Amino acid sequence: xxxxxxxxxxxxxxxxxxxxxxxxxxxxxxxxxxxxxxxxxxxxxxxxxxxxxxxxxxxxxxxxxxxxxxxxxxxxxxxxxxxxxxxxxxxxxxxxxxxxxxxxxxxxxxxxxxxxxxxxxxxxxxxxxxxxxxxxxxxxxxxxxxxxxxxxxxxxxxxxxxxxxxxxxxxxxxxxxxxxxxxxxxxxxxxxxxxxxxxxxxxxxxxxxxxxxxxxxxxxxxxxxxxxxxxxxxxxxxxxxxxxxxxxxxxxxxxxxxxxxxxxxxxxxxxxxxxxxxxxxxxxxxxxxxxxxxxxxxxxxxxxxxxxxxxxxxxxxxxxxxxxxxxxxxxxxxxxxxxxxxxxxxxxxxxxxxxxxxxxxxxxxxxxxxxxxxxxxxxxxxxxxxxx
Length: 388
What we know:
Elements: H1 2-17, H2 21-36, H3 38-49, H4 55-80, H5 91-113, H6 126-140, H7 155-163, H8 166-195, H9 200-206, H10 208-228, H11 232-252, H12 260-274, H13 277-286, H14 292-307, H15 310-313, H16 326-356, H17 362-368, H18 371-377
């Protein structure tokens, strides 16, 4: 994590001083490369510290901090932009220079302040670290990944297990039920509100309350999902709210100026529906991968595939189709509906596996399977229980 943050901080700083188009293109590419590993890494670290019933609320807080930092960074960027002309640099270059230097400082601090797991935390005594370690074993059925436990011969085998794990593709579709509508909403919400008859400035301001409600919904949904240790109902409920909101907007968008209260309410519902999906999806995925190495690879793979939804999501709301946006609303509805089907399918598969081995003792299982066979089976092992 420290290496990634330092690397993208250096690239951001270079972006502020590069003068030619080719250099800017290269630095933007490198920014994407180094930023790509941060989000899966952050989710993995959460899984190293918290048992399954406490992961989603922590991930929701992570999302909330991301949203707040986004709002703060906009204000910070606006202030830094006023430095234009200083040292002969444009305002946007100063944004990259200062934020890049700050990222390097924060990245360096990661090496000292961000331990991988309880056993490497300097502020915990041995008994506290052991307690957290054993809690992790009892809840996940696998040891944490510790320093020195790096058996490289198993890496390719684990990667193959990840690529062949059907649940990750279903989870990626659940993830895409957020990424496609969410990207479309981010790019199009100001225009949708502008179509209601507001000025561009006021339309931008009116986007803040829906996003705030979405962030609150994500935290509340995660809190209750952790309390009952059940992800599917909260994910499907959010996706269903999203379907309702986009359906109403699709129908009334051509007459949006004469249906402002209804359509603006649906914008609120869309945000309330879209934001709780990712914390739930990530918690569900990270809780249902057999060991630390597979969790690290699996969450990165799932996010990679699911995040591809951002590509169509960025282009489905076409200005030529304003104000109805049939392609945008139709595609978003399709992905939300597909996400519902995927979540219900995952729930069925998890329950079927758990019930198959319910009532079978560990002694009976070990008589039938060797330790090597159980390890090779991974998530299919009769000792492994999926977390709902």
